[in-house]
Amino acid sequence: MGIPLYKGKVPFVTATQMKEVDRAMIEDFHVELIQMMENAGRNLAHLARVRFLDNNPGRNKVVVLAGSGGNGGGALVCARHMHNWGAEVHAFLTRPSETLAPATFQQLEILHSMEIPISLPGAIPQLGAADLIVDGIIGYSLTGPPKGPAADLIQWANEQGFLILALDVPSGIDATTGKVFDLAIRASATMTLALPKTGLLVPEAKAFVGELYLADIGVPSSLYTKIDKNFDVGPIFAESDILRIEL
Predict the structure, then answer these.
(1) DSSP states of 7-56
(2) How far apart are CA 232 and CA 245, in angstroms?
(3) What is the per-residue pLDDT for 227?
(4) CA distance linking residue 178 with residue 112, whole number of Å
(5) Does the residue 3 lie in any domain?
(6) What is the CATH classification number for the domain harbouring 103?
């Protein structure tokens, strides 16, 4: 079964508004970051399986690129599910494990326990062909051009010519303005979370976004109206946890 196209109207949010959604989820609704991360990562793995791996991840090679924050944590959750479904998975980090956000570090520890190969910063993948690259390097918190290992992994990913699935926003694109920095992931598809980001609508960014999908991470509709009374978000995920969105 494929991913359904959503035919209704979906509001787009800025990075600042999405940051407020995350805050309200944790502080007001008591939904922890680790729960949202799990929802994001499992949906990302499901989209990868359905859209790119012909519903059969076994014997496929998947490279997961993970940053230090929530975006990276979601990508590591995806790596776990891909591994469980039979894919050959190798994860690459942009920062040393001791500098990861707590929830992201917890996801890394799970991968260590499962003996999934993980490479530390500075290790450019030398893996031959891959069936899919998962971009979880930088999420909506990007504030300037990618640097260091993050920039190196973005450049490597773009040079391979492999299929790339980006989480939330392709790394190197400003989630609010759509500004594309010199180094930015050119994704085959992007799975954005909760609500799509305004930057994804910008013509300059569209070529880097690829196909756009929207995934449920469990945000209550009432939360959005607390942030902005004009956010009329109904049960958009009634049909599916993941929806195709036309740009």
Answers:
(1) -S----B-HHHHHHHHHHHHHTS---HHHHHHHHHHHHHHHIIIIISTT-
(2) 17
(3) 83
(4) 35
(5) no
(6) 3.40.50.10260
